[in-house]
Amino acid sequence: MRTKYGCFSVIIFNSPTSKLGEAVKLSFILTQSIRDEYLIKSLIEYLGCGNTSLDSRGTIDFKVTNFSSIRDTILPFFNEYPLQGNKNLDFSDFSEVVTLMENKSHLIKEGLDKIKIIHNRMNTNRKQ
Question: CA-based angle 19:23:28, to the nearest 5?
Answer without folding.
Answer: 160
